[in-house]
Design goal:
Helix content: over 70%
Shape: elongated
Number of strands: 0
Order of helices and strands: HHHHHH
Largest sheet: none
Strand content: under 5%
Number of helices: 6
Structural class: mainly alpha
Length: about 160
């Protein structure tokens, strides 16, 4: 009787262990797949910025990327990977802000630098505060290129984190 109880307990613990470890593995696989999908969308934006993209095309790609990233961020635990993916998405959105600001500047005969030095991003910072004052933020091309470079660096770091 005692041996049967020990055997039943051992089998029960083994089953619980197997079921628990399968659940964790499934969750990690889901997180990795979601992160890869977000990175795929981010890499599409990276490639588009390297070969050239119109503001209209960029906006559509930005919407698609943001939807994928939001889905991914909802399943990823807090940590470095989540931070890098989020930072890359934010940078691509900030570049869109530059484009929109340049249109407003042209329509109102303002210099882009005046708008960029005073316009606050979602995090409350100006473009030069967030991306460093060493960049040339006084032309649309220079400003977007600087921000796209930062975004690409976040994508590269996130990719390396998934590979680990």
């Amino acid at each position: 009787m005692y041996k049967r109880t020990i055997l039943a307990l051992t089998i029960s613990l083994a089953i619980i262990f197997v079921l628990t470890s399968c659940g964790e593995s499934k969750e990690k696989t889901e997180q990795k797949n979601a992160a890869n999908n977000a990175l795929k969308a981010l890499r599409k934006l990276t490639a588009a910025t390297e070969v050239g993209v119109s503001p209209i095309q960029y906006q559509q790609m930005l919407i698609d990327m943001r939807a994928e990233v939001n889905e991914t961020l909802s399943v990823l635990p807090n940590g470095e990977l989540k931070t890098e993916i989020s930072a890359a998405a934010d940078a691509y959105k900030d570049a869109s802000t530059i484009w929109q600001a340049s249109i407003v500047a042209k329509q109102n005969n303002l210099t882009l630098s005046i708008l960029l030095d005073s316009y606050r991003l979602d995090d409350g910072k100006t473009i030069p505060e967030k991306y460093g004052k060493s960049g040339d933020y006084y032309s649309e091309d220079a400003a977007t290129s600087t921000i796209w470079k930062v975004a690409k660096e976040h994508v590269i770091r996130a990719s390396k984190l998934i590979e680990k």
